[in-house]
Records
---
Amino acid sequence: MYARWVLTALLVWPAVAAVAILIAPPRWAKHLGFVASLIEFAIAVPLWWTFVPSGGMQFVCDAPWIQVPLFGTGAPWSIHYTVGVDGISLFMVLLTTLLVPLSVLGSYSYITTRERAYYALLLVLTSGMIGVFVALDLFLFYVMWEVMLIPMYFIIGVWGGDSRLYAAIKFFIYTMFGSLLMLVAILALVYLVGQRTGIFSFDYFHLMRNLGDLGPLAFWLFAAFFLAFAIKVPMFPFHTWLPDAHVEAPTAGSVILAGILLKMGTYGFLRFAVPFFPAVALAPPVETAIVALSLVGILYGGLVAMVQPDFKKLIAYSSVAHLGFVMLGIWALTLQSVQGALLVMINHGISTGALFFLVGMIYERRHSRLIAAYGGIARVVPLFAAILTFVSLSSIGLPGTNGFVGEFLVLVGAFRTHPVAAGIAATGVIVAAAYLLWALQRVIFNPLDKPENEKLPDLTPRELAVLLPLVACIVWIGVYPKPILDRMEPAARQFIESVRPPGPTATAIAP
Amino acid sequence: MILDLSSSRDLLLALLPELVLTAWSLVLLLLIAWRHRTAADLRFAGCVTLAALASTAGAVWWLWWHAARAAPTPLAAMIAVDDFRFVTDWLFLGAAALTVLLSFNYLEREQLLIPEYHALIVFATLGMMLMGGGDDLIVVFLGLELLSVSVYVLAGINRKSAAGAEAAFKYFLLGAFASGFLLYGIALVYGATGTTGLRAIAAQVGAGAGGGTMLAIGLALLLIGFGFKVAAVPFHMWVPDVYDGSPTPVTAYMASGVKAAAFAALFRVLGEAFSAVAAWHEIVWWLAVATMVVGNLIALAQRAVKRMLAYSSVAHAGYLLVAVAAGPGPGSAAFLFYLVAYTLMTFGAFALLAAKGRQGERDVLIDDLAGLATRHPWLAFALAVCMLSLLGFPGTAGFIGKWYILAAATSAGQGGLAAALVLTSVISAGYYLPVIMAMYMKPEPSAEAHVGMRLGRLGYAVVTVCVAGLLFFGVRPNRLLDLARTGGVAGPPAPEAIPAAPAVSAAHAPTAR
């Protein structure tokens, strides 16, 4: 019962709750939103125990959705509602359901206008994000991928900062540009596989099993998938939408954007782009280019972050660097590096999410995000300063925090296949230390020389309630990551095997 | 039910919907002659029109229910009897009904107490039905002329408006020009094949006769003529001014119904008569690309909502041309579904525009919608749904329609066209989104900005039907896709109905149902 319906419940519940919020009186909106997202989390938590690490795809639910008889092909094109999770998507689902209630709670005092619409959109966004991570039908995946654009677009555009309109439309158009090409690639894929097998299905496993050798077309199909995911990640030359969107979005928007939306890109690589086209993805020129872009992302993101006067923009650029580690881990293709990449995805959601919360909290007090506006506030707001320091250290990757485990695994794994790249990436950790510690110094240490900062109130209990779960996760993953690694190991292993079979040839996939 | 079109009884049966509508139009004209002074008369004429449209739809349904098909023996039949005709007829009748519903309020507000307006809509719809069902180039041409002449008048029905006069005049001049092309094309095709019957032409072409320059030139001229009517680039010059100057309900009618009729005729002519001629594929390919690129780029620069929608309709003509390029079989099914979606979104958007506009509705800028969401949340929501559907966003019928066209194009091996379609769709986000942005993300300029925005009960009904349809078909398109598929064959009747027509079946591979 639970196994069959849990994912559907996770998809449907937020949408239902969103409607309830729209109907209910405005003053209830935030409380309803918080309760609804807590229930969502409660639905998801048993997944942790019921999930069988070696069980492959689980909690599968499958129902026919659209059957379109097309001409000339004879057989119908069948679209199913198929959902399921494995060791890759499980953590994305859990991370999503964890971050949403915190985001709702973190928005209590930040959002003061049109609250009903805001919390309803946040919940619809949750549905879309869960949908992306659990969809096992490419049509459903595409629909969810696009559907989650709209709530985010509104959250940035309505509740965002001064140049929110520009940021919102840039975010929208960048994402749509990539995803529409992916749609054409999906259609072409379904058609090609359908011609060969006589079954025109968008089912993930059907496509995986019957892809075979696509010839030169594979490159173009991979390119379309790559563009969609690389924009979302974002990889180096496609990242320009990210700083704008992050800076303009309200706090919760930034948290969700960094914590979950960016992971959709890397998740897409892990689930679709690389397993579908391993021959292209691992062909030497493509592989070199992608590893090089990841390294550029790590270093460029870090260096640009260092010179940002705006704290929020600094964190935004640090995301580019962190996601570079994920990409490197995926393409290094060793068990450690892939597990590390998955862990960095989780860690980045937790640490960067917490950082965005912290910046949002201080912004609410002081109405400035400029690093130069602060200085020495550790004496005024000690609790805030302590948590900021702790979270920054985890983001840098200090041993004992989650950041260390993830990046260490990526580097260890990558060192076996790409020693030079791993060496360069390691310097990225140093850059990260530089920009975050320097920012810390200028914000909370240094002399307290601005009179406006002398009366800042410290964190409220509500804000602590937002931050402490994240701090707990940081410590837990930093000290004892084994339960997580155990759960993701079979999936990571299977990913590597599907991409690079244990046999001598790397191309044979069709049974 | 097999109808032998050489017997007059069966021919009358086959023409039943057209006859019903003609009879109603005569009744309507008579009634108007007696009652044409007050607003009540106008409403009365509108109600009669709705009854006419409904009973005609019933007649179409009757033929469809009995699975009426034409016997193959007279090869040069004047009218086709197939599902494509029935489905397009419903589409035209539906578009006309929405136009009439939209017009009640609009005409009274603009003081256009002209009941002939409704009669003209009936005539135009009759022309459309002849275009969608004509199995002979001459019938198609007659339908086109009946349609065009009625719409020329409708465009300029507001005699007090200089813009309306300009629109009517421009439309008339360029439309006459296009008709000339079309007629000359028909003449050349006749010269090459000795017939104007579509299936007879196909038989001639299949037999190898007339495959020459004359036929090619004739076909090119036909394409130019249709290109004008569907507003394909480079024959789109008339669109912005005509759409802009016409009364808003008429604009919606032109954007959906008139364009649908021209496309239906195009599908039938290309699919039935010229499917063996390869020359048109490349022409349509280029037309589609040019139309999508130019339409979307120019729309991007528009400030006024109505002009933006006019150019967006050019862009949508481009998307439909992709369906044409995918081949008449899959293309026409995609076309039928897309047109249902497009009709719904166009009428939704224009209905809201008509409500916003006061006299000088030409000047409703995108920025004038600022803050609409706080004042009229449901109207803003409806317009947002229409915009997202026009953009082809998942969850709306516009997405399923676009997806169907893409699927048809990819399965026809037109991957390049599919890529062009999605890339130009991205451009279109640049002009659909600002509408949503203005409504939701910009503050109301003044407290009176949206005073007097009244839709009326019928307007609300139209908008609700459109939005509900868009969302419903966006999630459960199954039945409609099925209908579009069965109606999609713009070819000879089903294979079992052709026992002895070797020439025809040689020209067309029988399509599996």
---
Amino acid sequence: MKDRFNLYRFASPATFYPLAGAMIPYFAAVSVVFGLAGLWLGMLVAPTDFQQGEGYRIIFIHVPASWMSMFIYLVMAFWAAIGLAFNTRLSGMMAQALAPTGALMAFLSLWTGALWGKPMWGAWWVWDARLTSELILLFLYIGYMALTAAIDDPKRADKAGGLLLLVGVVNIPIIYFSVKWWNTLHQGSSVNLTKSSMAETMLWGMLLMAMCFWMYSIAVAFMRVRTIMLERERHTDWVKAELANIGAGGEK
Amino acid sequence: MIHWNSFSDFLAMGGYGLYVWGSFGVTVLIMVVEPIMVARNRKATITRLQRQMRAETRAENRNTAE
């Protein structure tokens, strides 16, 4: 009975900390491999788009960044729900570790979108449903980070931040379906589960880049969550042992 | 296999060079700078926590000595 594999064991920071540390190099390496393969296909092999010329190649970062900005928010909202429901220590740390990366992804989505919009629509920005809801997503990330940073007690910060995340989650389907629900300038989705309107190399280049962004986000979030763990659990024995060990050159 | 005829073709991106490279440049910059910032923050946090820990141990030792 006591030897049974138990997933809940990893919910303890003391167990998750070394596990995350061991996994970071792998996620980073896989991210680089996917990134190189995706750039190769997308930037060197994929053909010219018949409507947008070479300008469409922004898609290879615009779509992965946009997907990640939405996905990271959903993961944060998931951790917020777990944290509020079960009062687990790790969940708030996970949400906090993901927020800056999510915000950067939302920023990249808007930045690359502006650089794509200018040559194709003639405008860096329009108050279109897709663009506006993505901007709100960026504000939600910033609001979450500001709110949790403003509250000294981590437990209360997690609770307040978690509520904000759960209320804001309504924005995600709005972003996703905005191109269907409203007449937008933004083009419809190029990919869905049954059919795709793209050439095969374009599609694969984009999916590889999405995997690259995904693995990158996990690696950075794990790096960040380990620091948060040390900070928050500094009075526990395992962190004291860990800090003594790092000082002795046990870890870089 | 490779779509481009020359390197300058590749850089020009069919006239969209500024937009395409502006997108990729900022993305690369962020993906390089973010991990560096996280690593630096980690180092600073560890140094601070170690200093706090040493100070606390010293205070405890002093208390037991008295």
---
Amino acid sequence: MTVQNETIAVAMSGGVDSSTVAAMLAHAGESVVGLTLQLWDQTRLAGRHGIPDAPKAGRCCSLDDVYDARHVAEHLGIPYYVVNQEDRFERDVVRPFVAEYIAGRTPIPCSLCNNHIKFDQLLQTARSIGASRIATGHYAVNEYDPARKRWILKRPVDSAKDQTYFLFGLTQEQLAHTLFPLGRLTKPEVREMARRHGLRLAEKPDSQEICFIPGGDYKQFLAAYLEEQGEQMPETAGEMVASTGEVLGRHDGIVNFTVGQRKGLGVASSSPLYVLQIDPASHRVTVGADAELATRRLRAHRLNWIAIPELTGPMRVRAKIRHRHQPALATLEPSGADEVIATFDEPQRAITPGQSAVFYDGDEVVGGGWIV
Amino acid sequence: MRHVYMDANATTPLLPEVLEAMRPYWIEDFGNASSIHLRGQKARKAVDEARETLAEFFHCRPAEVVFNSGGTEGDNTAVFGLVRPGDHFITTSIEHSAVLQAAQRAAAHGATVAYVAPQPNGLIDPEDIRRALQPNTRLISVMLANNETGVIQPVEEIGKIAAAAGVFFHIDAVQGAGKIPIDVQRIGCHLLSISAHKMHGPKGTGALFVRRGTPLDSLMVGGSHERRRRAGTENVPGIVGLAKAAEIAMHTLEDGTLQRAAALRNRLEASILELPGTGVNGGAAHDGSVPRVFNTTNIWFDQVEGEALVIALDLKGVALSGGSACHSGSTEPSHVLMAMGLDKTRARASLRFSLLKTATEADVDYALQVVPEAVAHLRALSPVAAGTAG
């Protein structure tokens, strides 16, 4: 086959960002193919546990979004295809998401999706149809550093849109074959560019929620999904205890709790109580005062390193422990095979198992892992 | 880049003669066929003539031809027009969704449905139909030719079984029409649906043969069109186009066109089968035990994701599909191939080549240049490729 090495596959979600990427590349004269990954059937759980029959637009894989992406592709005159990845998405993202909650952790499906679907699978699909690189609408910068002989992932110009936290799992191979054309633009500039390219969705609002959870109610989703699968929600009811060990009452199940949660604890107290810890083995949920949420240490495993080949000794970094967290100074140390310990200079509030910890050196992503 | 269309089972281009035949009926002869005046009469004449042509096509009386919007409407009408709550309905698990979804709705409304599975070669065994009969069986619906494999079903034998049991018999002939001769007298069916666009006619037009005396309720109610069997102003240009397409199809059934195209299909199939890790779903041409329509071959490719292969080939100018176009975007592998006993992986690794009767040697040459390259490229990228070639 005459492999078109130049062809770039653009992951088109039907949103402003990826549409603008397609427009930028097409107008720059690149050979572009638009791909939309069909990941989740938004009508699949409709009617179960109060999930609405007609999903709202503006979520990934809704028919409206596919329509928008197709419209952009037609406008740009580029070939466009919808690629069904529902099976893989369910296996690699949805099931682990459900399992994490059942295990008392608080998962981030977007990072799982980026690791397993958006980059891994998309790159494979791109190659199989004759493209050699992919481009996405993520706000991030990747560049090759000849000195270190490594691909580096950096924060974008628009820090409010920084998506590097969700991209820590990218391999060198993936970074080498991915374009992030928006990394050096601000969101207003992107919208302006969309307008200039005549994209009528330039004003379309950003999507914020987890794409496969209509309405954002994850408990409703867990119940509906398990029911659809003919599975029972595991019995995870247990004791609600204070940090002193005193039993304060009982709770209905650990899936209802997230570290740092304040509402819906069901125990009376003179001062506000927060979830401090969830023990998946004993089903015990420990609650305490806000001040008790702050801790200095985290362990992370299932690591991926980007700026360095391996962590061999202590390293000063800024560590970010959730999407909206301001990265904080910490010292990173290897603590076994595929595991690190980060010790913060200052205690950090609500370090939550299941979330990712991403380590920065200045603007560079050193690497990251999943909080144990 | 060369463009080769090998998705004729999804739809076919209008033949220029068909377009010419339809042309007057939009602007000049635009009358409503139900009107009394001369303009209306002109439209009526066109519809009457079309009905005569379709009667010839089906081997039935003109009064037994009902024009409609296409295959889905015909299939729906057969099921909803005959099957009542409490009735038993026999169909097969390889039908088009126009029948299967109608069956599901009938079942939701109190009918019971038996889905007869095919043999691994894609053929329905008439004995399985016989075994499925119940005292309250009202209707049997079986397709003439399968849209995905091209396998021609033994409808004459099933017709005898239906007749002996006193059960109504519907045939979804959408994929058979224009590809093999249709004779409703020989088949002994009560209903038979066809669609114009699968045989070089216009989209949105079809016909349903309704044997005289069949107590079929109409799907649509309104005016007294089509002898009260299908309300709605006649789509005169569409009906004229369908008739012209049927007329041409009757001719090409006899003039050697289809044999020539079949030879092209056979060459394409035989050459692709030389690739390791391939096979035909539904019996190959050299094995005459499974009759197939002239234009279709459904081939599996080990270690290939069918969806990616379809896109890769499209970008090389070869248009074909992994299965039914009505299911594209669906995550489920082909229900037809699954019913034939393929596993999910192989069902997903299957491609349907369906040639136009106007296909050329050059079309096949180009496909035979592009397909092996694309398959080799995909296999080289496949994570399971190493050490399992062949």
---
Amino acid sequence: MYGRITNGEEHTFGVSGKLIMNALVMYDHQTRTLWSQFMREAVKGELVGTQLEVIPVTQTTWQAWKELHPDTLVLDKNGRYGFDTYRGYYEDSRAGVLGASEDDDRLNRKELVLGVEIDGQSKAYSFAALESEVIVNDTIAGQDALVYFDASSGTALVFDRTVGDVSLTFSVEDGPGGVLTVFVDEETNTRWSAFTGVAIEGELKGERLKRAVSHLSFWFAWKDWNPDTELYQG
Amino acid sequence: MSISRIILLLSVGLFLLVVFVPSFRHGLSRQIAGLTTSSETLTVATNRGNSLGDGTDSESQDLEIITLLGFDAIPAILDPNFVDAITADRDMKSNELVLGLSINGDSRAYPIPMLSSHEIVNDVVGGEPVAVTW
């Protein structure tokens, strides 16, 4: 998800039909510059070199999102799109349109990972590890990060766990789970909503943990894009 | 010349073309793969972490850009329409995946099966112009 304003100009984007590293290349209607999802910037045309502003989204189930935001709007399906054209692709062993560049034995190529990149350092968390641990208090490129995974909705979120100058260490409170999951930090015992990163009770009430951009992807794709990635397997 | 002799000569000719003419072999294999593609190498300045990571500190890198389809063969959404959650519920399964975004109190869900078909939705959420991509 990207902001559509760069250098003060608003753009609209279309699909160029081209790929870089198996990832989408967009073009903007205003200048026909090509923008690479992989590089997060314009790679050819008038605006070459301009960076895209990346905005974190939440990938989750309809059920979970509806509970979290009952007043949500939903993109109108117009009675179509009952199935995902990529459905067969998720299940089989084909890797991308153009194939994986090379295999990395640490994980099966089609295994899902949560990938994070901070300050040029990449780290992937295997779904298996996240399913069993639920949260990981970690440090990537010197930044303290909180990795959270809800198995019931397949939602994975990464937050910056530093608030002000203090690095917080979280645990999951016993409770209903899903969108009602609460974290508690051991430094102040503040209670936080897991899905929004907002402190709901305690000393830090009202604070909001900043989301880091993370990607759910297949291991082969993440490894192709980030050859030096670390891998967390629990 | 008999038919079988002609066929033999054509087969040998084809074999020689495939073996000794790289561009022919390349084009043939791409056609056989069901895709007619062209590829081009772009040299872009590396100024961020998302690089091909060979560890060397270089100022530019080569990227291969592959053309699979023409512009707009996959139609991005430029003017999205929305419904409320109750209306959406009729067409949505509970475990259907969505990308959710909430900006300035404006919450929106983009069903992933739709995103698969369009790749890009140009929208304005909470006053912010955004491109939701898949």
